[in-house]
Write a structure and sequence with these properties.
The complex is a heterodimer of chains A (116) and B (115).
Chain A lengths: L2 E3 L4 E5 L4 E3 L2 E3 L4 E8 L5 E7 L5 E3 L5 E5 L4 E6 L8 E9 L9 E2 L3 E6 L1
Parallel strand pairs in A: 2-12
Antiparallel strand pairs in A: 1-4, 3-9, 5-6, 5-10, 7-8, 8-9, 10-11, 10-12
Chain B lengths: L4 E3 L2 E4 L5 E6 L6 E7 L5 E8 L2 E4 L8 E4 L6 E5 L8 E8 L9 E2 L3 E5 L1
Parallel strand pairs in B: 2-11
Antiparallel strand pairs in B: 1-3, 3-8, 4-5, 4-9, 5-6, 7-8, 9-10, 9-11
The chains are: A mainly beta (116), B mainly beta (115).
Amino acid sequence: AQSVAQPEDQVNVAEGNPLTVKCTYSVSGNPYLFWYVQYPNRGLQFLLKYITGDNLVKGSYGFEAEFNKSQTSFHLKKPSALVSDSALYFCAVRSAGGTSYGKLTFGQGTILTVHP
Amino acid sequence: NAGVMQNPRHLVRRRGQEARLRCSPMKGHSHVYWYRQLPEEGLKFMVYLQKENIIDESGMPKERFSAEFPKEGPSILRIQQVVRGDSAAYFCASSPPGTRGGEQFFGPGTRLTVL
């Protein structure tokens, strides 16, 4: 079975400060990892993914994430937060193999609030 | 290229009625996924379909729920005899063929309210 944990329900940061949203995962075999953002009453927007290669992945809107295999983590980061980054962030994992390769498993989500 | 389209965006049903949710994937995408987001919870996988085939329905409730993706037309998620616990946001996602490592593109969702 695959699972994702986002240990923080909420993250608060001041505008201009760096932000980190944490994610750890469990999956059989190699993982495919994703971050999505959801604004109120909207669908999910894709931010970035890790499939293979460099552990540091760069994505949309200045976000990046670091894959750490030994710690089974995929934390989302941004060097300088904007008020407009305030939203609900989801980490997701899927297995690279097996019969459930289409199934994304999501974490519970982290509400990011960036204060002016 | 239009994104994933879902309709209706909002659906109100009384207990015992049927709900039909439609999803048109992005152009060129042949894989469709349905997820459910209950209040205060994350998204839960329901079903994965390709044209005319159900690939993985491990997240579907065993009763009242069904899904299809016909050769022509949108994918349909059907809920029979709805109950209040079915109230949720239902999201559809799609992906192109041959991209097992690729991201899924999500629609805006259908918010179902059961009175």
